[in-house]
Amino acid sequence: MTRAQVASTTLAAAGAVWLLGLIGVLPLPETVRTQVWPTLPLLAVVSLGAYAFINIGYNLLAFRECPEAYHELMQEIQEAKDDLRAKNVDIA
Amino acid sequence: MSPIQDKTVGASLLAIGLFVFTYYSIWTLVIPFVDEGHAAHHLFPPQWYAIAIPVFLLVVGVTAVFGFLSFVMLKSGKKAAKKST
C-alpha cells in the first residue's frame, strides 16, 4: 500500500461523502446543506495553501544559518554542473 | 540572500498564512449562521466572493503552472531541433 494509494483512497472517500451531502442524502441542517457544505472543497484547498505558507514561513524564521555548509554546497553545485556539462547534459 | 531578508519573508509568509486561514474559515463556517443584522457581516464581503475569489485564483494559478510548463517544453524542443540541424 503506497503513500499515493492511501492518499487517493482518502481523497476519494472524502469526495464521495461530500457528494452525498450535496445531493441531500445525509441528514444535514438546512443552512449547512445550502451554504456551508458546497464550500468545503474550497476550504480544504485554501487551508492546504495556508498550511504550506505557515510551514515555509515558520521554518524560514526558525532556521539557523550555517555558512560553511553554504559554501560547501555552492562548491558541490559547481562541480556537479561542470561534471554534467562534460557529459553533454544541457545545463544553463 | 541575507538572513534578515529570509526572516522577513518567513514572517510575512507566516502572517499571510495565518490570516488567510482564520479569515476564510470564519467566512465559510461561521458567517452563514450569523443573523443578517449583526455587526460581523460588515467585516466580510458577500458569500459569493467566498467562492469566486479562490476559484479565480486557482484558475490563474493552474494556468500559470501549465503555461510555464509549455514554455519550458517548447524552448527545449526548439533547442533540440536546432541541435539536430
From TrEMBL, chain A:
It comes from Coemansia aciculifera. It comes from the Eukaryota. This is Uncharacterized protein.
Automatic annotation (TrEMBL), chain B:
GO terms for biological process: dolichol phosphate mannose biosynthetic process; GPI anchor biosynthetic process. One of its GO terms (molecular function) is enzyme regulator activity. Keywords: Endoplasmic reticulum, Membrane, Transmembrane, Transmembrane helix. Regulatory subunit of the dolichol-phosphate mannose (DPM) synthase complex; essential for the ER localization. Belongs to the DPM2 family. Component of the dolichol-phosphate mannose (DPM) synthase complex. This is Dolichol phosphate-mannose biosynthesis regulatory protein. It comes from Coemansia aciculifera.
